[in-house]
């Protein structure tokens, strides 16, 4: 039989046939009668064991078969004598593609810290943990496209280079071809972006939403799924400078429809991962259990990874208003004992400690918070007609909060009334002229519509049970981190 990835071989190759496997050596073990090599080719978390009889391979060959070396092995697939694997390959021929000097190769068959692995991000996909994460990441990305395709959404590619910071979502990375040392200046002595590549100031996008809305008001239901950039200097475990965002936007959807979609979407893609990544999730579940054992009893989480994922897909998310949430928080134990780092009262932007209290301590379920104060949300969110139940004006916003993470989704129904939208822009100091094209959607054939943004890495973080967002993207970009 010709070469098969190990994942396929383990599923389909019949015992007794000749197979060729190719991959990297994970471990080599010598007993009196035989030599056992565990090979992995990245197609699955499972290794294939290849076995040579003692004396079959020359000393010279054996010396080159070390952890990290790349081999092609041909031989008969047989039932395994030992425990731990059903089948193994009886070596008839070995070819060494590339060696890995054991004195220099940084990955050795022992547990490396995640911090150390971040320093060798170019090699960490060869570890069990990272290959599992990357395969799950792939499955989730595929599930995202599948979900939207199955539900009548069109994939809209919004620009990565933009001229607007209308969102005000944070600090942006400038895109320019001007000379950094001696840029052309205007008469007032400012940098003259009229002479720049695009003839104006441009940045990397912080969100595809505004263009997404243009798409929704033409195609009905669209989604974006692309790289997003934020130059916020936050060295947290939940923020990257470059991340992937999924932003569906739907004509004729109101806040309630938006929440229903968000909940169904997240559950569906998690279910997909559970169905298609069973081995990798079992591995990570186990890894997490080991890690939990090293923690103090009271810091250990009650649910394992698989239990947590099952729990999320089989329970309804709790829905409540921001105003109701503030009530809960103000009357909570940590607030009364002064244990929150940031104080809570109506009108403040919730910190992740507050979000996590609601999700992890109070409700013990994912939560969707709605109807936030107008002042802490973006200008384009639809203003509530009636805010009499709350101390101030609110907008039709919704944030989905997850255990261990806090905000995973932020969204809203959009203001579709031109006058209200323009008035709000003026209040917050955005010149309506700068996004005249966005306002045209409200001038011509305006319609109720809604959408949200899901940070893809936050989803991967949740599904893999990892603790740091830098460990769920192959090559993280964060402050002072852009080597690989
Ligand atoms: P946060 O308050 O957590 O910083 P945000 O409110 O600034 O997030 P939004 O502008 O609402 O974020 O973006 C939508 C989604 O994008 C968030 O819910 C989150 O999942 C994700 N996201 C935002 N900023 C980042 C980041 N720096 N790195 C990774 N994901 C992010
Ligand atoms: Mn948000």
From TrEMBL:
Coiled-coil annotated spans: 274-309
InterPro entries: Aa-tRNA-synt_II, aa-tRNA-synth_II, aa-tRNA-synth_II/BPL/LPL, Asn-tRNA-ligase, Asp/Asn-tRNA-synth_IIb, NA-bd_OB-fold, NA-bd_OB_tRNA
Superkingdom field: Bacteria
Keyword check for Protease: no
Keyword set, alphabetical order: Aminoacyl-tRNA synthetase, ATP-binding, Coiled coil, Cytoplasm, Ligase, Nucleotide-binding, Protein biosynthesis
Short name of one Pfam family: tRNA_anti-codon
Broad EC category: ligase
Location, primary (coarse class): cytoplasm
Reactions mediated catalytically: tRNA(Asn) + L-asparagine + ATP = L-asparaginyl-tRNA(Asn) + AMP + diphosphate + H(+)
Keyword Chloroplast: no
Subcellular location per the Swiss-Prot or TrEMBL entry: Cytoplasm
Entry EC no(s): 6.1.1.22
Example of a GO MF term: asparagine-tRNA ligase activity
Domain Aminoacyl-transfer RNA synthetases class-II family profile: 134-474
Record SUPFAM superfamilies: Class II aaRS and biotin synthetases, Nucleic acid-binding proteins
Transmembrane segments: none
Record-linked PANTHER family: ASPARAGINE--TRNA LIGASE, MITOCHONDRIAL-RELATED (PTHR22594:SF34), ASPARTYL/LYSYL-TRNA SYNTHETASE (PTHR22594)
Subunit structure as annotated in this protein's UniProt entry: Homodimer.
Family: Belongs to the class-II aminoacyl-tRNA synthetase family.
Protein name: Asparagine--tRNA ligase
Gene coding for it: asnS
């Amino acid at each position: 039989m010709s070469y098969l990835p190990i994942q396929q071989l383990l599923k389909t190759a019949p015992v007794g046939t000749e197979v060729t496997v190719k991959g990297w050596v994970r471990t080599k073990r010598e007993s009196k009668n035989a030599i056992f090599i565990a090979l992995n080719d990245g197609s699955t978390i499972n290794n294939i064991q290849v076995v040579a009889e003692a004396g079959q391979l020359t000393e010279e060959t054996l010396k080159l078969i070390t952890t990290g070396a790349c081999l092609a092995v041909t031989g008969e697939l047989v039932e395994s004598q030992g425990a731990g694997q059903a089948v193994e390959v009886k070596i008839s021929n070995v070819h060494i593609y590339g060696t890995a000097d054991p004195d220099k190769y940084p990955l050795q068959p022992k547990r490396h810290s995640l911090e150390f692995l971040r320093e060798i991000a170019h090699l960490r996909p060869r570890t069990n943990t990272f290959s599992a994460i990357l395969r799950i990441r792939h499955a989730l990305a595929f599930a995202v496209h599948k979900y939207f395709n199955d539900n009548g959404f069109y994939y809209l590619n919004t620009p990565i280079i933009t001229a607007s910071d209308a969102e005000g979502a944070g600090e942006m990375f400038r895109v320019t071809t001007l000379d950094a040392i001696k840029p052309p200046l205007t008469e007032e002595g400012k940098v003259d972006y009229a002479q720049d590549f695009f003839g104006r100031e441009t940045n990397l996008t912080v969100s595809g939403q505004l263009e997404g809305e243009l798409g929704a008001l033409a195609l009905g239901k669209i989604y974006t799924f692309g790289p997003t950039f934020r130059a916020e200097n936050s060295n947290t475990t939940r923020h990257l400078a470059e991340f992937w965002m999924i932003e569906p936007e739907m004509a004729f959807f109101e806040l309630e429809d938006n929440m229903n979609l968000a909940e169904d979407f997240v559950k569906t893609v998690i279910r997909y991962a559970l169905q298609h990544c069973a081995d990798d999730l079992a591995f990570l579940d186990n890894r997490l259990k080991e890690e939990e054992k090293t923690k103090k009893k009271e810091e250990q989480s009650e649910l394992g990874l698989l239990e947590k994922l099952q729990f999320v897909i089989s329970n309804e998310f709790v829905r409540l208003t921001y105003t109701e949430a503030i009530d809960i928080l103000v009357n909570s134990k940590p607030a009364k004992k002064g244990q929150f780092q940031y104080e809570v009262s109506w009108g403040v932007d919730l910190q992740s400690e507050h979000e996590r209290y609601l999700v992890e301590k109070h409700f013990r379920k994912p939560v969707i918070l709605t109807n936030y104060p107008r002042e802490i949300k973006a200008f384009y969110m639809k203003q509530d007609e009636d805010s009499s139940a709350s101390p101030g004006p609110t907008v039709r916003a919704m944030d989905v909060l997850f255990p261990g993470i806090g905000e995973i989704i932020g969204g809203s129904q959009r203001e579709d009334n031109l006058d209200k939208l323009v008035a709000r822009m003026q209040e917050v100091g955005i010149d309506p002229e700068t996004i005249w094209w966005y306002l045209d959607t409200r001038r011509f054939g305006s319609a109720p519509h809604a959408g949200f943004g899901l940070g893809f890495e936050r989803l991967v973080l949740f599904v893999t049970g990892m603790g740091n967002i830098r460990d769920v993207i192959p090559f993280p970009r964060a402050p002072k981190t852009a080597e690989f």
